[in-house]
Amino acid sequence: MVHPRMLERDTSVLLIIDVQEGYRGHTVEHDRMVRSVRRLLEAAKIVGVPVLATEQYPKGLGHTQPEIADGFPADCPVIEKMSMSCCAQPAFVDRLRALGRSQVVVCGIEAHACVNQTVHDLLDRGYAVHVPSDAISARFEHDLRSGWDKVIGSGAVPSTVEMACLEWVRTAEAPEFKAIHRLIK
Description:
Blueprint: E1 12-17, H1 30-47, E2 51-56, H2 58-61, H3 66-69, E3 78-81, H4 90-99, E4 103-109, H5 111-124, E5 128-132, E6 136-137, H6 141-153, E7 157-159, H7 161-169, H8 177-184
Parallel strand pairs: 1-2, 1-4, 2-3, 4-5, 4-6, 5-7
C-alpha cells in the first residue's frame, strides 16, 4: 500500500495547461517553468504516464510553445478551450475519464486562473491533484503566490518536478531510474 498522497505511475496523468506562445516572456521565471514542464513531459513518457494538454483561445494566444509541443507523445491531443477550467471543456472531461486514472499532475499557466480553476474542479470530481510548484507560473508574482496558496489550501498536494519524477519511478532499481536521474540532475 502506498500513501494516498504519493504518486503512482499507473494511476497518474500529466496535464499541461496553456503553455502558449502568447505567454512567452510574460510570466514569472518563464524559462524555468518551461524547462520544468518539459522535464515532467519527458518523465511521463519514460514511465508511461499519459499526457493531456490544453490551449486557451489559441487564435489569440497562439499554440503551445514548441519546446513543449515537440515533446508531446503521438497520442496526446491538444484540447482547445475558452473556459478557464479545463473541466468546462467536454472533450477534456471525456478524454480524462477514458484514461481511468485517479491522480492528475497539473502544470502550466496561469496559476491563479486556468490552473486554479482546473485544480478546484478536479478536486471537486474526486481526483487527487498534485501541483509541482516549479512547473506553474503567472504573469505577476502576487498571482502566482495567491494561486499556489489557494490550490494547496483547497487540498491539492504540493510537489516539485523532481518529487513527481521520483515518486513515479519509486526506486533506483526501476528500469527507468537512470533515464529519470539524467533528466532531473
